[in-house]
């Protein structure tokens, strides 16, 4: 008996999925556990395995097309079964859906257009209407045609119209000729600057499920959560020395980002009111600490979560972040690995960004933005000396965190980064 395979709900926020790839085609034998397709959700691309044995009789959603959760994805059964009857019995028609999907795809994807041929620039019609031709006599008796505006501009600039070659209709002088006029060098030819020409072009790329999810979530956050920002500079000299000493041992390697994430977790433990979520009718103060780390991927941004961050050392945190980031970029990360964060960190220091602010990742109450470590003159003990400074910016949802609470958190974070040994004891 044939089995209907429906579009699965692969994450808590998924409402539709896109078939990124089919690993079977109609007529292929399918066994339970075989990789059937890859489904792109709003958070990742997931491998979808078959739960049934049989033959793939029907594909309801073409590669690259989207379908709502629970729509017919495929039909698996015995060879020769009546697919149309099965679809009719299921109470929906997959074929019109496919046709509609194809139609939408055709609307979204513009047909290839041949490269346009750049025409010879024609006279500008607007100037013919707005600037009627005026005839002026020249010293050699020839008539000079110029628009009223060009004549006025030439008089204001002290330019003789006889020294200008017009680019308008019938060689008339127009506004751009006066603006582009350059006196000829002594004994040389006059230089005429032609108006720029070229071909405008663009490409429309349909938004991926991930990009749609990012737009929806962050728009809701930015326009509903009253953001305010707290900024602080951190002296990173001691952190640089500590990292160098740890990495010289050779057994482990840590990054500055690993140090920041560890310091954030320790600071959250000392400032629990920042480790909170906005739940609409309540503020949830989390006893556990799960730090999300923003990772750039091809389609946008994901925030993998390091669970129970405060219980882990910097080396373990670094290894987890590296693994999560690698699988996120390969679209192999699981949805539950991007859920449950109680605080988020976004670090753009590796791109040379000194200072920036981030949009809060709901339902979190805060997100920390981390800039690059910059060598700069600083004042120590009343003297100007070389130093290494990193700028931090804390974005806060004022519904959850007040200024004094956020400031206390940043103060603790600064103390930990400036004295890394405090993160160990």
CATH architecture of the largest domain: 2-Layer Sandwich
Rg, rounded, reads 33 Å
Class from secondary-structure proportions: alpha+beta
Strand percentage: 25-35%
The number of helical runs is 10
- At the first level of CATH, what is the class of the largest domain? Alpha Beta
Q: Main β-sheet, in a few words?
A: 6 strands, mixed
Strand line-up of the largest beta sheet: 11-20-19-18-14-17
Count the beta strands: 20
Indicate how many domains the architecture comprises: 3
Description:
This protein is of the alpha+beta class. Helices cover 28% and strands 25% of the residues. Strands 11-20-19-18-14-17 form a six-stranded mixed beta sheet. The longest helix has 16 residues, at 209-224. The chain starts with a strand and ends in a 7-residue tail after the last helix.
In short:
With 425 residues, the chain is an alpha+beta fold. The chain contains 10 helices and 20 strands. The chain has helices at residues 83-89, 94-108, 125-130, 148-157, 175-179, 209-224, 237-248, 256-270, 314-329, 403-418; strands at 3-6, 16-22, 29-30, 35-40, 45-49, 54-59, 66-68, 72-77, 134-137, 143-146, 227-235, 276-278, 283-285, 291-293, 295-297, 300-302, 305-306, 343-347, 366-380, 383-397.
């Amino acid at each position: 008996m044939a089995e209907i395979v429906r579009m699965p709900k692969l994450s808590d926020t998924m409402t539709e999925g896109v078939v990124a790839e089919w690993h079977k085609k109609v007529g292929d034998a399918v066994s339970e556990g075989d990789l059937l397709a890859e489904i792109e959700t709003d958070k990742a691309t997931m491998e979808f395995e078959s739960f049934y044995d049989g033959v793939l009789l029907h594909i309801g959603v073409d590669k690259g097309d989207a379908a709502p959760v629970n729509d017919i994805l495929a039909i698996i059964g015995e060879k020769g079964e009546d697919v149309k009857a099965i679809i009719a019995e299921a109470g929906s028609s997959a074929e019109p859906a496919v046709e509609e999907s194809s139609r939408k795809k055709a609307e979204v994807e513009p047909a290839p257009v041949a490269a346009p041929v750049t025409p010879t620039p024609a006279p500008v019609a607007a100037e013919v209407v707005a600037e009627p031709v005026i005839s002026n006599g020249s010293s050699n008796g020839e008539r000079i045609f110029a628009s009223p505006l060009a004549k006025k501009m030439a008089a204001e600039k002290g330019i003789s119209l006889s020294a200008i070659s017009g680019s308008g209709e019938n060689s008339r002088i127009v506004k751009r000729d006066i603006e582009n006029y350059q006196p000829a060098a002594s004994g040389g030819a006059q230089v005429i600057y032609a108006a720029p020409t070229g071909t405008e072009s663009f490409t429309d790329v349909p938004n991926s499920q991930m990009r749609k999810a990012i737009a929806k979530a962050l728009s809701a956050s930015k326009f509903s959560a009253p953001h305010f920002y707290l900024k602080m500079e951190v002296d990173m000299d001691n952190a640089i020395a500590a990292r160098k000493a740890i990495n010289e041992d050779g057994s482990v390697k840590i990054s500055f980002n690993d140090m920041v994430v560890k310091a954030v977790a320790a600071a959250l433990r000392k400032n629990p009111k920042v480790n909170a979520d906005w739940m609409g009718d309540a503020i949830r103060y989390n006893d556990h600490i799960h730090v999300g780390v923003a990772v750039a991927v091809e389609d946008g941004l994901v925030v993998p979560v390091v669970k129970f961050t405060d219980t882990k050392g910097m080396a373990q945190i670094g290894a987890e972040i590296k693994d999560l980031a690698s699988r996120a970029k390969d679209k192999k990360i699981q949805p539950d690995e991007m859920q449950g964060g109680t605080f988020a960190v976004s670090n753009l220091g590796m791109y040379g960004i000194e200072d920036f602010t981030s949009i809060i990742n709901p339902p979190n109450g805060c997100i920390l933005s981390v800039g690059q470590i910059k060598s700069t003159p600083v004042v120590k003990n009343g003297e100007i000396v070389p130093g290494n400074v990193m700028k931090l910016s804390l974005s806060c949802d004022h519904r959850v965190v007040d200024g004094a609470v956020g400031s206390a958190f940043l103060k603790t974070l600064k103390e930990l980064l400036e004295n890394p040994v405090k993160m160990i004891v």
